[in-house]
Amino acid sequence: MARNKFDVDETLETPFQAKHLKRTFDYIKRHGAKMLLALILSSLASVSSMYIPKVTQQVLDDVVPNKNLTLLWQLALLFIGIVIISIIFTVIRSRIMAHVSQEIIYDIRKDLFAHLQRLPFSYYDSRPAGKILVRVINYVNSVSDILSNGIINIILEIINLVFIVIFMYTTNARLATIVVAGLPFFLAFIIYIKPRQRKAWQAQSNKNSNYNAYLAESIDGVKVSQYFTRQEVNKSIMQRLATACRTVWMRAIRISNTVWLTSETITQIVFTMLYIAGVYWMTGGEMVSFGVILAMGQYVGRFWQPITNLANIYNNFVNNLAYLERIFETMDEPVTVDDAPDAATLPEIDGRVDFDNVTFAYEEGINILEKMNLHVKAGESIALVGPTGAGKSTIVNLLCRFYNINNGSICVYDNDGNSYDISKVTLHSLRTQMGIMLQESFIFSGTLLDNIRYGRLDASEEDVVKAAKVVRADAFIREMPDGYKTTVNERGNRLSQGQKQLVSFARTLLSDPRILILDEATSSIDTKTERLLQEGLNALLKGRTSFIIAHRLSTIKNCDRILYISNKGIAEMGSHDELMEKKGLYYEMYTAQAREQGLEV
Ligand code: ADP
């Protein structure tokens, strides 16, 4: 998957296919009964209103010449009745359809979100969050109307058309033919404009997506932007993206407006032709009454209105097709890291891990690890050190199977010594036995209690407090305004970096994993907190296999084994003392760091 940025238009990987229509229909048919009711009500309202021109005709041709007041009253009552029925039915229909449209939004969002939750890291690595958000929020909103009201309106307008044609032809066939004669011209125009319209709306969806991507990134990074006083630069990038949005939008609207303009022009021409022909035939002594000409004049509008509406719905559909394609594309995004069809549930593991000939690349052709071998005993503590970008985080990501390896195998063992290839067991059973503390301790919106309980929802409050005490998080939490019930917002803005890490330590401890992964986890804790934490960590590490990535080498001196990662694999391996004696890469790194900190080696 190619990487995408806010200033790169997305190319559509799966254009709209026939199967998408079926899928679209699946979302609609769940609401079939309600939609049918709405359709029936609308058709009744619409068909009854078709009598209005007939009323006009009767007034002119019967009431006026015969001075028939009784008929006038009857027609007036009929007229009021039609109007009231139309209003009531239209209101009920809007209510039903508002409901259906919200349900469709809900269904699509639910499916999209469920899929997004399953998509692997590689999906999120390759596109900006804003472009994902815009699909779930804006596109779904936008397509729901066309999928609910749009469908009903199409059917309704077709019913309208059929009835109007019948009414027109029963009123006067020759005049009716004049009204219908403009249709082929209009259809030819629609065929001509369609591909242009589609392209214009696709461009609009691309630019809109770019704009959203940059917006999301800017909100996420607003603090860094302000540190670096980047506001002006950012504003100009935003303006550029917004201008691009406006330009493509205007173009799309301009093209779409031609549809309405053309239909309006044809309507006017038809009107003129109708009156000329009607008056011509009437003065020629043919059987065309004044009432018939006026009624037909009203039908012209009623015939061309549904055609214009259909063209607009079609236009809207073309516009939304671009969104629908994006939505389905996301839903079809393969879950490349998933349970194999015959995946077994991993029993309780003992902590032993084997990497055998592991080769891995994020992007084809650029191997990060090559034929890496590592055999870790249960309960062993392993430190991963080495230059930035060497592949330390990658190794632990592979162990949790956030990415699939290209070659080789990674195995874990149960308490009876049976080995399990991690690609052949369920992700759930694997990951629940691993405790991971990432570089950035993510805090979710909610209380501190919820945050610590995140990975084990059934944990009691006592369990939470116990875990927090072990990792020395309890003291600071108790000092917060509402203790464990203190609400933090997304990203935990009211907590210091160190506090966030303590919370995430407690979260991990509570899930009681066999294998513990600490990725740079101690890097932003002050020395005093670190000392406290070290005690907690020692308790936490006891009896568990651990992989610790740390830049501060002083923190990993006591690990059982230290791996120096470099050059696509393990360059050096041994205890701190062994590696110091070897005077190789680790020794150099350690002495350089110790010198920097003014420590004795
Ligand atoms: P370390 O943890 O040792 O600093 P990483 O394991 O994070 O290094 O990264 C190893 C290499 O893989 C780096 O060159 C980095 O640029 C690359 N890399 C890391 N994550 C990704 C990713 N999601 N997509 C592509 N390349 C990546």
User: How would a textbook summarize the main sheet?
Assistant: 6 strands, mixed
Q: Taking all residues together, what is the mean pLDDT?
A: 86
Inertia-based shape: elongated
What ranges have pLDDT less than 50 throughout 5 or more consecutive residues? none
Number of domains: 2
**By helix and strand content, what is the structural category?**
alpha/beta
In quaternary terms, these chains amount to single chain
N-C termini distance: 47 Å
CATH architecture annotation name of the largest domain: Up-down Bundle
**Helix percentage:** 55-70%
How many DSSP helices? 20
Percentage of β-strand residues: 5-15%
By CATH reckoning, the class of the largest domain would read: Mainly Alpha
- By CATH's scheme, which homologous superfamily of the largest domain applies? ABC transporter type 1, transmembrane domain
Quick summary of this structure?
With 601 residues, this protein is of the alpha/beta class. It contains 20 helices and twelve strands. It has a six-stranded mixed sheet with strand order 6-9-10-3-11-12, with helices on both faces. A four-stranded antiparallel sheet has the order 2-1-4-5, covered by helices on one side. It has a two-stranded antiparallel ribbon with strand order 7-8.
Give an overview in words.
The protein has 601 residues and is an alpha/beta fold. The chain folds into two domains: 18-331, ABC transporter transmembrane region fold (Up-down Bundle), CATH 1.20.1560.10; 337-433 and 517-523 and 548-601, P-loop containing nucleotide triphosphate hydrolases (Rossmann fold, 3-Layer(aba) Sandwich), CATH 3.40.50. The protein is built from 20 helices and twelve strands. It has helices at 18-29, 32-49, 51-66, 69-118, 121-125, 129-171, 173-180, 183-220, 222-227, 231-283, 290-332, 392-399, 427-431, 448-452, 461-470, 474-479, 497-510, 527-541, 576-582, 585-596, and strands at 349-363, 366-376, 381-385, 407-414, 419-421, 434-437, 446-447, 487-488, 515-519, 545-549, 561-566, 569-574. The strands form three sheets. Strands 6-9-10-3-11-12 form a six-stranded mixed beta sheet, sandwiched between helices. α3 runs antiparallel to α11 (290-332) and α6 packs antiparallel against α7. It binds adenosine-5'-diphosphate. Adenosine-5'-diphosphate is lined by residues 125, 362-363, 368, 388-394.
